[in-house]
Amino acid sequence: MLTEFLSVLCLGLSLGFEDEKKNETLPKPSLSALSSLVVGYRGNVTLRCQSHFQNVTFVLGKLQDSRYRQEQRSTGHKAEFLLTHLEPKDAGMYFCAYKTMVSQEWSGESEYLQLKVRANRLIFAATFSCLSISILFLAIFFINRCTQHGSSHGDPTKRTSHSEFPKQEATGEW
């Protein structure tokens, strides 16, 4: 009877320990960039997520875009996510999380990393130049229209004197 009691007690304790383990939350991972977090237009950056455990599945997410999600399995403690051909729309707050093969529940999110993507100065300069040329063209066009329109309302005697010029030439009078 004592052996049955000890068996049941050990079984109960081990089941309770497993339940406790399931309720434990996994420690947050850390997220870092392998280079600068300010990236040029169409540039690349690698984000590294690290956990305290091996054999985990990592996920990289973006705070402003719930649909953004990259998953990666790792036998080690870390995973590296390469972000390529970045554009201004890719800027934002990134985070990572992980789950172990045993727990199948996601850890808490890492601290957020703010990724910035600089606009290409050449594109900005070209856009500014095209805009300036367009405004200049419109200004010349309107000035020309206003000048032509304004000259038709001039002094009618000036037009008469010009129209008499050929008559004076024909009579030979100067």
From TrEMBL:
<keyword id="KW-0812">Transmembrane</keyword>
<keyword id="KW-0732">Signal</keyword>
<feature type="compositionally biased region" description="Basic and acidic residues">
    <location>
        <begin position="155"/>
        <end position="167"/>
    </location>
</feature>
<dbReference type="GO" id="GO:0005886">
    <property type="term" value="C:plasma membrane"/>
</dbReference>
<feature type="region of interest" description="Disordered">
    <location>
        <begin position="151"/>
        <end position="174"/>
    </location>
</feature>
<feature type="transmembrane region" description="Helical">
    <location>
        <begin position="122"/>
        <end position="143"/>
    </location>
</feature>
<dbReference type="InterPro" id="IPR050412">
    <property type="entry name" value="Ig-like_Receptors_ImmuneReg"/>
</dbReference>
<dbReference type="GO" id="GO:0002764">
    <property type="term" value="P:immune response-regulating signaling pathway"/>
</dbReference>
<dbReference type="InterPro" id="IPR013783">
    <property type="entry name" value="Ig-like_fold"/>
</dbReference>
<keyword id="KW-0472">Membrane</keyword>
<feature type="signal peptide">
    <location>
        <begin position="1"/>
        <end position="16"/>
    </location>
</feature>
<keyword id="KW-1133">Transmembrane helix</keyword>
<keyword id="KW-0393">Immunoglobulin domain</keyword>
<dbReference type="InterPro" id="IPR036179">
    <property type="entry name" value="Ig-like_dom_sf"/>
</dbReference>
<protein>
    <submittedName>
        <fullName>V-set and transmembrane domain-containing protein 1-like</fullName>
    </submittedName>
</protein>
<keyword id="KW-1015">Disulfide bond</keyword>
